[in-house]
């Protein structure tokens, strides 16, 4: 929840600071933010997909009978 709030607060501020250099730079900033978000979320998505597929980690060692 906090990360989304920070992005919602900082995004328009950065867009306002970057827009005088050209709107193309604003779009590049947004693309960079999307790529960064995808990279940071990929680990979480990987864990979720493994859970849905029923993947279980193999236990190491011996089991007691």
UniProtKB/TrEMBL annotation:
Compartments where located: Membrane
An example Gene Ontology molecular-function term: glucose 6-phosphate:phosphate antiporter activity
UniProt-listed Gene3D superfamilies: MFS general substrate transporter like domains (1.20.1250.20)
SUPFAM superfamilies named among the record's database cross-references: MFS general substrate transporter
Membrane topology, from the record: Multi-pass membrane protein
Key words of the record: Membrane, Transmembrane, Transmembrane helix
Signal peptide per UniProt: none
Residue ranges of the TM segments: 26-46
GO BP terms in the entry: phosphate ion transmembrane transport
Assigned GO CC terms: endoplasmic reticulum membrane
Domain Major facilitator superfamily (MFS) profile: 1-65
Protein name (database record): Solute carrier family 37 (Glycerol-3-phosphate transporter), member 2
Source species: Hypophthalmichthys nobilis
């Amino acid at each position: 929840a906090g990360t989304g709030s920070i992005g919602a607060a900082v995004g328009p501020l950065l867009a306002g600071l970057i827009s005088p250099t050209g709107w193309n730079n604003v779009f590049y900033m947004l693309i960079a933010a999307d790529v960064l978000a995808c990279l940071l979320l990929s680990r979480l998505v990987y864990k979720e997909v493994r859970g849905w597929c029923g993947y279980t980690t193999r236990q190491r060692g011996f089991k007691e009978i």
